[in-house]
Design goal:
17 strands, about 300 residues, 8-stranded antiparallel beta sheet, globular
């Protein structure tokens, strides 16, 4: 039997709370009993009601349960692209034949994940089709928040003076890899760096707080975006990597993008969200090329338990 190394991305669920008495937003906390019941409530829905359809892609939470190791939950998202029916091509002979798929069918794409109960860390199998990602999971789960409204109201009565703010039962943050900074280091010219934070978020940054103070009186804003730009022809900014590393409370910034030129002259935009910390798990592959998903789950849990990541 063949083997394969499967890449696993490292994210983290948070269940933020507003401390009403102290007017303090506790963003980095994780409460298992405020996230897991929500996911289980999604699983209680009939399969047809768990489907999220974007018009050309479909995604559903197909399974979710406590793992054999009681310290973890495990689950599986199934996704597919659907649409135009095209010819199939044989990989050796290049013989073509009409696909027998309908426009409403797509190739099944199963992506497995593990959640550590104590910390909220999310370990997600890499998806080569880019259908099941941090962002798509976030979108998928938020689509079902209305079914948990009554539960959130009840939780808010129980956890006073803390409060779950409307629409923000959870957040998913990325645990970043050094590869982001390595890519920045390969740029010969850096022309622009942009980043965003939530408008009303407490953050330990004089720059952000000064921008927010300057916007006092603006109504309806929910995000601050600021940019550092070099407009000089042929010019470049330096020490951007160190600037980003030194950002206080880095995880509160979103959509950090560094733009510049490679040695070839090609323009490149490097996004921090594209660089989650990752590790790999070795699993068996059967004669049809399908990996052992139970080995994948067990391998993830083993590495986490051994603190090997």
């Amino acid at each position: 039997m063949d083997h394969k190394w499967v890449k696993i991305y490292n994210y983290k669920f948070n269940t933020p709370k507003l401390d009403v008495e102290n007017n303090n937003y506790q963003e980095e906390r994780f409460d298992e009993d405020h996230l897991i019941p929500f996911i289980l409530r999604i699983m209680d829905l009939p399969l047809q009601n768990r489907i999220y359809d974007t018009g050309d892609k479909v995604m559903t939470l197909e399974s979710f349960q406590q793992s054999d190791d009681a310290d973890f939950y495990e689950g599986c998202f199934t996704s597919a692209r659907y649409g135009a029916v095209t010819n199939l091509v044989h990989r050796r002979t290049f013989a073509k034949r009409q696909s027998d798929k309908t426009v409403d069918e797509g190739d099944e794409n199963n992506i497995y994940f593990v959640i550590e109960r104590a910390t909220g860390r999310l370990f997600l199998q890499s998806d080569g089709q880019r259908l099941v990602t941090r962002n798509s999971i976030d979108t998928y789960l938020r689509n079902f928040l209305p079914i948990f409204n009554n539960d959130m109201a009840q939780l808010n009565r129980q956890i006073q003076p803390l409060m779950i703010t409307p629409g923000n039962l959870f957040t998913i943050t990325t645990i970043y890899s050094e590869s982001f900074f390595e890519e920045i280091g390969k740029l010969v010219r850096i022309k622009k760096a942009t980043m965003q934070i939530k408008y009303n978020q407490d953050i330990n940054s004089d720059v952000v707080n000064a921008i927010r103070a300057g916007a006092e009186g603006v109504a309806g804003a929910d995000t601050i975006e600021y940019s550092i730009i070099n407009k000089e022809r042929g010019g470049s900014m330096r020490r951007i990597e160190q600037f980003i590393r030194n950002l206080e409370e880095l995880d509160k910034y979103e959509k950090i993008v560094v733009e510049g030129s490679e040695e070839s002259g090609r323009t490149k935009a490097i996004k921090i969200e594209d660089h989650p910390k990752d590790f790999s798990v070795k699993v068996n592959v059967n004669q049809n090329g399908i990996i052992s998903f139970q080995e994948l789950i067990d391998g993830i849990i083993d590495k986490v338990k051994r603190r090997a990541i």
